[in-house]
Structure formats: C-alpha cells, structure tokens
C-alpha cells in the first residue's frame, strides 16, 4: 500500500513538472558593461525582487569577449530554470555570445548595449554613427603585463560623459569605482550572436554619449526587437537613472510580451 502511494505521488510529480517548469518565473542574469560594476543594477534588482524574480548579477571581467562570454555561459549552464540574459553596454556583446548553445535562455535584453553581428566589434559599432564623445574622456591607457591596455574614463569627466542624469554625488562614486575594460575587448569581433535566433528587447536613452542612440536604434531594428524603449534624456546608465523602466522591460521579456 505504502509503495503504491509513493508510485502514485512520483507519477503525479512527473506529470505536472513540465507545466510547472513552463510556468516558473525565469532567473534574470544581469551583466554589467565597461566602466561599471554589478552595483549599477541595484535599483533594477530591487524592483525585480519585489516582483518575485530570482536575480543574479554576473561578474564581468571586461578582458575579452570570448573569455567574458565563457564565464557568463558557465553561470547560465548551471541554472536549471529558464533564463533572461540582460547586458549593459559592452555586456551586450557578452550576452550575445554567452547565450549561444543554451536552450534555457528564452530572451535577451539590451540596456544601452551593443548587439553585434558576427565580425563586428564594440569599437566599430560606436563609430558607425556620429555622437559618441567617449574617446577624448579616456585617461591615459594602463599597460598590462599580459598585453594590451586597461582603459578608464577620467574621473572628472565621468559624470558628464557616462552618467549625466545621475545625482552628482552618486556619479562621483561611480567614477571612483569604475571597472576598466581592455582595448582588446572593445576591438574583438563577435563570433556567434544569439540574437539572430533568440528574441530580444532593447532600451536606451536618447542622451547617451557613449554609444550613439542612432547606432542602438539601428541594432535594435536589425535584431527585430520585440519591443524597443527610448528613455528621453537618459544617459548611458539608464538602468541607474531609470531602474523602473528597465525592470519593466526585463519583466516584459520574461513574459514574452
């Protein structure tokens, strides 16, 4: 009798598990970009937590597209639920590559981000349309013993260039804590962009000084974006200055809307 009850319970669990999996909220994996860190997602994370989502802010070493994407891919592969991959800035290049080959990635969200085609680079896309003023704000490169250079934004120029719509005190903290990116990463070509077959959503500000808004509009259109949101007056860190709008779009992607 006892064994029969166990078998019945097991069969019931097996019978409902596909539906339960389908109904389960996806895990949101957030990937920061150059000159930022995972704390740039704090406002977005708070909203997603409030709405019942599990969130992981993935570390992004900002060394090269290949190695950064491999680390994010390892994380995605360890998650047993569906995943929504979200990338900011250079993080868009990373999630495009990291999602490839992972069937649990159901959506890609680009937040003021690059969505390169195979063979394209972040640096090349920045210069495809006029509007980026990043170059003159960079500090002298920091040579690396492993080759290449680390790039930083000059701290006194950081607020106006990177975070013009963020309170000055907060922008100064961001400037001091910025994570450098290598020149190698910015000039490394994408190889297998998953946005060509995984649905994508895009959001950016029309006052972005790092990536020209025209470039992001062009990339979103090329990717056949399910929904594109342009935040009026927002800087490159739209997730910091407008976390509610970014979280709303991520949740729309999670629901396939």
Automatic annotation (TrEMBL):
Superkingdom of origin organism: Bacteria
SUPFAM superfamilies linked: alpha/beta-Hydrolases
Gene Ontology terms for molecular function: hydrolase activity
Entries under InterPro entries matching the protein: AB_hydrolase_1, AB_hydrolase_fold, Sec-Metab_Biosynth_Hydrolase
Alphabetic keyword roster: Hydrolase
PANTHER family to which the protein is assigned, alphabetical: AB HYDROLASE-1 DOMAIN-CONTAINING PROTEIN-RELATED, ESTERASE_LIPASE_THIOESTERASE DOMAIN-CONTAINING PROTEIN
Name of the protein in its database record: Alpha/beta hydrolase
Source organism phylogeny: Bacteria, Pseudomonadati, Pseudomonadota, Gammaproteobacteria, Lysobacterales
């Amino acid at each position: 009798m006892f064994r029969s009850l166990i078998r019945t319970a097991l069969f019931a669990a097996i019978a409902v598990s596909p539906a339960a999996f389908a109904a389960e909220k996806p895990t949101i994996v957030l990937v920061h970009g150059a000159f930022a860190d995972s704390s740039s997602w704090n406002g977005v994370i708070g909203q997603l937590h409030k709405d019942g989502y599990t969130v992981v802010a993935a570390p992004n070493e900002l060394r090269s597209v290949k190695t950064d994407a491999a680390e994010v891919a390892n994380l995605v592969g360890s998650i047993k639920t569906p995943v929504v991959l979200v990338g900011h800035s250079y993080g868009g290049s990373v999630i495009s590559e990291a999602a490839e080959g992972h069937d649990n990635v159901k959506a890609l969200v680009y937040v003021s981000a690059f969505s390169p085609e195979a063979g394209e680079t972040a640096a090349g896309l920045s210069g495809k349309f006029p509007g980026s003023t990043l170059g003159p704000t960079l500090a002298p490169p920091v040579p690396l013993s492993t080759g290449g250079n680390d790039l930083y934004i000059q701290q006194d120029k950081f607020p106006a260039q990177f975070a013009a719509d963020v309170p000055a005190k907060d922008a100064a903290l961001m400037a001091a804590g910025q994570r450098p990116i290598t020149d190698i990463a910015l000039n490394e070509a994408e190889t297998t962009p998953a946005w060509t077959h995984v649905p994508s959503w895009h959001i950016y500000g029309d006052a972005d000084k790092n990536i020209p808004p025209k470039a992001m509009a062009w990339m979103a259109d090329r990717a056949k974006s399910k929904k594109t949101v342009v935040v009026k007056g927002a800087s490159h860190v739209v997730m910091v200055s407008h976390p509610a709008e970014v979280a709303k779009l991520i949740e729309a992607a999670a629901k396939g809307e």
